[in-house]
Amino acid sequence: MLTALGALDVLDPGAVYWAGRLTLCGGPDDLDRYDAAFAAYFAGERPRVPQKNARPEVHATDAAPLEAGSTDGDDGSDEPDLSVAASAEEVLRHRDVAQLTPAERAHLRRLFALLAPATPMRPSRRRRHSAQGSVNQARTVRRALRSGGEVTRLLRHRRQARPRRVVLLVDVSGSMAPYADALLRFAHVAARARPSSTEVFTIGTRLTRVTREMRLRDPDRALTASGSAIPDWSGGTRLGDMLKAFLDRWGQRGIARGAIVVVCSDGWERGGTALLGAEMVRLRRLAHAVIWVNPHKARAGYEPLTGGMRAALPSVDHFVSGHSMAAFEELTGVIQHA
Q: Do residues 11 and 54 both lie within one domain?
């Protein structure tokens, strides 16, 4: 631990957090205790035992917002402890969303509102006049003919950039229930930032298009509307069948062609993995890039051992985690540069 800190900035809470996590945690069972101890020391939080098997709340809650650095006593000072607040928020950004308290979830919703994903662009066939770029020979010659055949200036043009379509497929099966709320909130941020070039679907035992619901301005209303539209919430998972249904309808001449497709799933497959592997190959041929988001990837010692993940990964361009706000911030960059 001390050796790791010697190579890092000890004043950076994020660096201290990851140095301790990588050197002090011997396995997955140590992660919860480490998070609780770190939060207690740096943010003044009381260690808690995470509740397991809790059903995710997709709809809005009335939980009080997290007030970093607050105490039970009042010392009469109105000056906030900015260092403690910053430390608490930094810790929260790296916390697994499945283990957050209601107050932390409320604060996380405010952090989602601050996400500003950039739009991935693609070159179009159309060109426009530009001071830089390749020479527009046709326009240059026409202008020269109007001036007696003398070329007085080289006119240039360049390809226009247009938004590249982004398609999100969010797994809402039972195994993904602890992360469904956060993933759908991320999908809402993406849909609101790029309403004309973003599509959102949920997958489980049914394929449901929730793009219209995700375009609602208020995130809680958007998730409530989406929850009402999803018939297979917290059910089983048939990834291969759902991917086939998506590609059959939206593939060859639809929204998947040339798009950045983001699959958010842990890879648990109730059906056969051969179909999933074949449909992933098909998807990879159509899409510009395939990104797979698995919240479990961030766990220490994680290996993609499930049949679904092993079948899908050969056709995946970017394999990322989606377990925390920091991971979602990273995901926005992956999508932008895919």
A: yes
| Cβ-based neighbour number of residue 129 at 10 Å | 11
Q: What is the pLDDT of residues 155-190, one digit of tens each?
A: 676 677 789 999 999 999 999 999 999 999 999 999
The pair of structure tokens assigned to 215 is: 């375009």
User: Helix %, strand %, coil % for the chain, to 5?
Assistant: 45, 15, 40
Concatenated DSSP letters of 220-231:
HHHHHHHHHH-T
* The two three-digit tokens of residue 234, written as one number: 């917290």
Task: Name the pLDDT band for 89 (thresholds 50, 70, 90).
Answer: confident
Domain co-membership, 50 together with 88: yes
What does the pLDDT look like over 210-220, one tens digit per residue?
999 999 999 99
- Domain interval for residue 157: 127-161
Q: Do the beta carbons of residue 202 and residue 129 sit within 8 Å? A: no
23 in any annotated domain: yes
In a domain, 119, yes or no: no
Domains in the chain: how many in total? 3
Domain-embedded: residue 121: no
pTM, two decimal places: 0.70
Q: What sign does the dihedral 226-229-233-238 (CA atoms) show?
A: negative
Helix axes of 239-250 and 273-286: crossing angle, nearest 10 degrees: 30
d(CA 218, CA 241): 32
Q: Is the distance from CB of 127 to CB of 160 less than 8 angstroms?
A: yes
Chain-centroid distance of CA 244 in Å reads 23
Cβ count near 250 (within 10 Å): 19
